[in-house]
Backbone:
């Protein structure tokens, strides 16, 4: 940080990334009331896939039901502070680790797979939020991070396609990017990490690309679920 940056930092109160209130000294990214009241996502996570995808499990931490949760995700994507993503990854991993189901679902040596951004977007943003969340997740769970996916095309959105066209385009977005000479030390399974699940189509594409090369269990974890 530049000297001016440090001076500004000292002069301006740091604010909660979620509700904007000034932070207490011991709070780093968000305030304690926010962390307590964020709406935890409770709906069945696999329902939107209608049985098409053989997920071992799925888990989304928060629901984008309120303004604070939406502001938090906006800050993660656009505020330009990579530390926010890492801290969120840690917070969600801590909460997930406390669930009894988490220990059941990921017995053995699991790894985290990140969703690659379009190269242009990564350049303008300076980071990939899926990677930041995975980094935080890794520091709490000890799961290795594997960059197994490569994004194929840049630009073309598939949202205008009908369902049947979307499915026939399943291999269009990602392909397997693991170098053949690199050993996979994963004996348990793979967890795809993303920031927000909306239609589920990104996760479905990522799953499809992994499934061509990986026969073990695949799950997903997201910071938030956009369904109300
Ligand atoms: Zn707050």
Residues:
């Amino acid at each position: 940080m530049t000297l001016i940056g440090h001076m500004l930092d000292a002069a301006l109160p740091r604010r909660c990334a979620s509700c904007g209130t000034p932070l207490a000294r011991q709070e780093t990214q968000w305030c304690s009331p926010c962390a307590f009241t964020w709406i935890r996502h409770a709906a069945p996570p696999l329902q939107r896939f209608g049985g098409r995808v053989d997920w071992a499990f799925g888990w989304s931490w928060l629901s984008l039901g309120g303004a604070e949760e939406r502001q938090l995700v906006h800050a993660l994507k656009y505020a330009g502070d990579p530390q926010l993503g890492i801290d969120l990854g840690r917070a969600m991993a801590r909460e997930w680790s406390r669930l009894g189901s988490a220990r059941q679902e990921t017995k053995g040596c699991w790894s985290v797979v990140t969703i690659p951004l379009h190269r242009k977007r990564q350049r303008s943003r300076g980071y990939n939020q899926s990677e930041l969340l995975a980094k935080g997740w890794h520091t709490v769970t000890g799961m290795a991070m594997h960059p197994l996916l490569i994004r194929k095309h840049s630009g073309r959105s598939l949202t205008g396609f009908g369902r049947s066209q979307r499915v026939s385009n399943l291999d269009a977005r990602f392909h397997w990017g693991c170098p053949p000479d690199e050993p996979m030390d994963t004996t348990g399974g793979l967890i795809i990490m993303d920031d927000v699940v909306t239609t589920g189509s990104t996760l479905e594409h990522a799953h499809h690309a992994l499934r061509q090369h990986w026969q073990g269990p695949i799950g997903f974890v997201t910071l938030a679920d956009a369904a109300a």
Summary: The radius of gyration is 18 Å.
